[in-house]
């Protein structure tokens, strides 16, 4: 069984996502960018609490580490691509936002699968 320390990275990622989400919301409201920055903010703010919950739950949630990695990567790809498009005029790489979105969807489904998987003996 992994210790709470092993999920510390997920808590750090959650804090960074939360801060980015608030900053992006402010930028969208005050500096323009509703079309790209608002959805990037929403994705960050939606997944930060999920990562906090996964980091607290640790190994009590089956597949928690994999779900946390997927949520972190998916959020970085999805939101990062939208932010890059707004500020530098091009995305991270072709299909970065859709790849991030699919990664997030798969991560949520993995969370469901982990909850439905038989318990450990």
Automatic annotation (TrEMBL):
Pfam families: DUF423. The keyword Membrane applies. Keywords: Membrane, Transmembrane, Transmembrane helix. The keyword Transmembrane helix applies. The chain crosses the membrane at residues 37-56, 63-84, 96-117. InterPro entries: DUF423. This is DUF423 domain-containing protein. It comes from Agrobacterium albertimagni AOL15. The lineage of its organism: Bacteria, Pseudomonadati, Pseudomonadota, Alphaproteobacteria, Hyphomicrobiales.
């Amino acid at each position: 069984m992994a210790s709470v320390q092993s999920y510390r990275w997920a808590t750090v990622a959650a804090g960074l996502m939360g801060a980015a989400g608030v900053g992006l919301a402010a930028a969208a409201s005050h500096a323009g960018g509703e079309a790209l920055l608002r959805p990037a903010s929403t994705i960050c703010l939606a997944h930060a609490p999920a990562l906090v919950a996964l980091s607290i739950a640790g190994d009590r949630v089956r597949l928690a580490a994999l779900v946390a990695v997927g949520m972190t990567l998916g959020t970085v790809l999805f939101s990062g691509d939208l932010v890059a498009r707004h500020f530098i005029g091009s995305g991270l790489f072709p299909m970065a936002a859709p790849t991030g979105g699919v990664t997030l969807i798969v991560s949520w489904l993995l969370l469901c699968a982990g909850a439905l998987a038989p318990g450990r003996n």
